């Protein structure tokens, strides 16, 4: 606007300075018009790069929708949970391709055209598709009677994962966008949602274990400081043995009781979904996070074994000194008896 104002003032100045002869003024003087000034100013602007348009999704369906995953316990009793859902009559539950470790629930009452679906995994994770925050809280509270070794509310909320999903053009397979959005077909998408849910459930479960390991490391951090300063170890042999058990339990969960190190058997004869599962796990850095956790576990095990060896050595030294003292006491008594016999 300042440029346009200056141009208009410049035009007034030219009109004031030229002679009043109309014919001469018209012949020799070129006036600046406002449209011409705008055109001249716009030609000086830097041209912007053309914006890349995203692939066109299914415009008939609104979106995006939310999908959120929680890990609330070490394990769910899916058989009792299925009965509880049936008695509640709010969701219709079923298995996914005869997989006994997963329970799929579809809401009986629709809020909009997009269905609300939930996947319950036996290892203690739940993934909710197009479910509001209020309904998610109700589902988490509903799960408590069917949980084993429930986690704290702070840990559940802190390690949750929230993503978005949209619908794909009809006839195209599901994909994972670079920004992390799931793109799935509108119809016949149960296995697509299950595949995404499987990797999401694995990610939040790994997040819980990472938080547990960080808490464990904080609990033994003072020991390394005491060792560095040469102070007395303040842990007992029973406490060290308990710490050893916690480490091996966590190591067992990560490497033996989960699918962190290998692709589940479900995808062996389903190449399309296996590629989608591997791609999603790669997005969540499952392999790298698992490797880092195992390295941390190895360092913790070395530290605990060092403590165990140190405390065992101290215990052995204490026993040896007790034996030495007993021998000295026995020698003293024998000496006294000898002196009594000799003096008598």
UniProtKB/TrEMBL annotation:
GO biological process per UniProt: positive regulation of mitochondrial translation
Signal peptide positions on this chain: none
Cellular component annotations (GO), alphabetically ordered: mitochondrion
Residues of the DUF155 domain: 118-294
Protein name: DUF155 domain-containing protein
Family per similarity comment: Belongs to the RMD1/sif2 family.
Originating organism: Pyrocoelia pectoralis
Pfam families to which the protein is assigned, alphabetical: DUF155
Cited InterPro entries: DUF155, RMD1/Sad1-interacting
């Amino acid at each position: 606007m300042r440029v346009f104002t200056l141009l208009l003032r410049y035009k007034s100045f030219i009109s004031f300075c030229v002679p009043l002869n109309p014919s001469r003024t018209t012949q020799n003087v070129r006036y600046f018009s406002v449209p011409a000034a705008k055109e001249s100013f716009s030609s000086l602007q830097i041209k912007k790069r053309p914006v890349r348009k995203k692939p066109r999704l299914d415009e008939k369906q609104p979106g995006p929708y939310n999908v959120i995953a929680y890990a609330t316990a070490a394990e769910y009793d899916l058989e009792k949970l299925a009965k509880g859902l049936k008695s509640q009559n709010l969701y219709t539950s079923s298995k996914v391709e005869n997989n006994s470790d997963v329970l799929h629930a579809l809401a009986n009452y629709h809020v909009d055209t997009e269905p609300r679906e939930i996947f319950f995994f036996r290892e203690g994770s739940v993934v909710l598709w197009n479910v509001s925050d209020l309904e998610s809280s109700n589902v988490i509270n509903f799960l408590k009677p069917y949980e084993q070794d429930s986690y704290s509310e702070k840990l559940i909320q802190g390690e949750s994962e929230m993503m978005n999903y949209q619908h794909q053009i009809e006839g195209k397979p599901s994909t994972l966008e670079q920004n992390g959005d799931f793109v799935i077909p509108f119809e016949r998408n149960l296995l697509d949602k299950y595949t995404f849910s499987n990797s999401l459930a694995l990610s939040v479960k790994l997040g819980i274990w990472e938080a547990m390991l960080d808490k464990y490391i904080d609990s033994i951090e003072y020991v390394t400081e005491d060792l560095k300063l040469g102070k007395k170890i303040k842990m007992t042999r029973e406490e060290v043995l308990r710490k050893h058990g916690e480490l091996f339990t966590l190591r067992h969960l990560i490497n033996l009781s989960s699918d962190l190190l290998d692709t589940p058997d479900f995808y062996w004869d389903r190449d399309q979904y296996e590629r989608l599962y591997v791609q999603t796990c790669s997005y969540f850095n499952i392999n790298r996070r698992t490797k880092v956790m195992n390295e941390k576990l190895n360092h913790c095990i070395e530290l605990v074994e060092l403590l165990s060896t140190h405390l065992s050595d101290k215990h052995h030294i204490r026993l040896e000194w007790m034996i030495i003292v007993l021998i000295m006491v026995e020698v003293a008594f024998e000496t006294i008896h000898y002196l009594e016999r000799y003096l008598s």
